[in-house]
């Protein structure tokens, strides 16, 4: 089950982030690595 | 808790600017153990391609889908591009919900069905807000199980909106875009429908030196989150590249 669905269904407060893919996978990969966001 | 967010939205050619597609990026995030919210817009694909991409997303393991209409190409970097809009966001939600039930839009049965967690968007600060509420109801009837909002900067207005939709009984994740400068705030007020950054916040940003700006952005964002948290089921942070500030915002907003 989606963790987002799981948490919302359980009445737990969620925090979501956002990335906007840019012009090139190489740059994107670098950015994703920089994010350092992990999943609850 | 391993990290800071439950899931990460992946925008679909946001602002009608050509970029890497949201499906590929969602799949890459899954490979890294990050749960994506796959955004899919009606602007660039007809119903054949939309349904196919939804099934492709499921094949990659994507579960969360945010169905949006999408900004018109005239707002983007390929102004001569032909917009599709074969479906609108309500129809797209309905199509995705039918896939969940094992049928395509024509009623033909699928060999197996996905189980998408379907989301939609709403603009609480719209003036008037009633059309937003009517469309929100339509989206719920079409299959939306959660909502993410346009950026919220006015807690009082947001509370009023949430009171109006209380009977819908659907989770609402309030959006907030990090304000990087007073100029950005003014630009959003002038150019982004449904966003109103109060003058008091613009003044705060104006009176902040460039060196202290990131600190001020964290302070303002955390304050707004603390004010709106009692009225919603989640916060959607749109950092616009200032990703490194998110942990501090979460801490100051008492979200961890």
Task: Describe the model.
- The complex is a heterodimer of chains A (40) and B (256).
- Chain A has 40 residues and is α+β, with helices and mostly antiparallel strands.
- Chain A is built from 2 helices and 1 strand, in the order αβα.
- Chain A is elongated.
- Chain B has 256 residues and is α/β, with parallel strands linked by helices.
- Chain B is built from 9 helices and 7 strands.
- Chain B has a 7-stranded parallel sheet with strand order 1-2-3-4-5-6-7, covered by helices on one side.
- The longest helix of chain B is centred in the C-terminal third of the chain and has 16 residues, at 213-228.
H/I helix tally of chain B? 9
Looking at the overall shape, the CATH architecture of chain B is Alpha-Beta Barrel
Largest sheet of chain B: 7 strands, parallel
Spans of chain B with pLDDT under 50 lasting ≥5 residues?
none
Topology:
The complex is a heterodimer of chains A (40) and B (256).
Chain A: H1 3-9, E1 14-19, H2 25-35
Chain B: E1 7-10, H1 22-31, E2 36-41, H2 47-60, E3 64-68, H3 89-100, E4 117-122, H4 130-142, E5 146-151, H5 155-164, E6 172-177, H6 182-191, H7 199-206, H8 213-228, E7 234-238, H9 246-252
Parallel strand pairs in B: 1-2, 2-3, 3-4, 4-5, 5-6, 6-7
Helix pairs in contact in B: 1-2, 2-3, 3-4, 6-7, 8-9
Throw out a few tags for this protein.
heterodimer, A: 40 residues, alpha+beta, 15% strand, elongated, B: 256 residues, TIM Barrel, 7-stranded parallel beta sheet, 9 helices, 7 strands, globular
Give a brief outline of the structure:
The complex is a heterodimer of chains A (40) and B (256). With 40 residues, chain A is an alpha+beta fold. Helices cover 45% and strands 15% of the residues of chain A.
């Amino acid at each position: 089950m989606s963790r987002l669905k799981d948490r919302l269904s359980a009445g737990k407060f969620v925090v979501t982030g956002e990335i906007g893919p840019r012009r090139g996978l190489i740059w994107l990969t670098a950015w994703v690595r920089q994010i350092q966001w992990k999943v609850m | 808790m391993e990290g800071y967010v439950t899931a990460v939205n992946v925008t679909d050619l946001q602002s009608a600017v050509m970029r890497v597609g949201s499906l590929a990026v969602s799949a890459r995030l899954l490979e890294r153990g990050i749960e994506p919210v796959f955004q899919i817009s009606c602007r660039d694909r007809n119903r054949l391609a939309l349904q196919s991409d939804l099934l492709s997303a499921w094949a990659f393991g994507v579960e969360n889908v945010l169905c949006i209409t999408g900004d018109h190409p005239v707002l983007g970097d390929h102004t001569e591009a032909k917009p599709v809009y074969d479906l609108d966001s309500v129809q797209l939600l309905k199509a995705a919900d039918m896939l969940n039930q094992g049928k395509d839009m024509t009623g033909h049965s699928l060999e197996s069905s996905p189980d998408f967690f379907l989301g939609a968007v709403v603009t609480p600060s719209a003036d008037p807000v009633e059309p937003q509420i009517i469309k929100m109801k339509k989206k719920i009837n079409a299959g939306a199980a959660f909502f993410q909002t346009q950026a919220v900067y006015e807690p009082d207005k947001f509370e009023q909106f949430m009171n109006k939709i209380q009977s819908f009984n659907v989770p609402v994740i309030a959006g907030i875009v990090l304000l990087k400068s007073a100029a950005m705030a003014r630009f959003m007020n002038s150019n982004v429908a449904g966003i109103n950054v109060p003058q008091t916040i613009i003044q705060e940003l104006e009176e902040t030196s460039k060196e202290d700006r990131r600190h001020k952005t964290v302070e303002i964002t955390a304050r707004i989150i603390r004010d709106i948290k009692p009225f919603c089921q989640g916060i959607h942070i749109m950092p616009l590249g200032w990703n490194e500030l998110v942990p501090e915002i979460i801490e100051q907003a008492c979200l961890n």
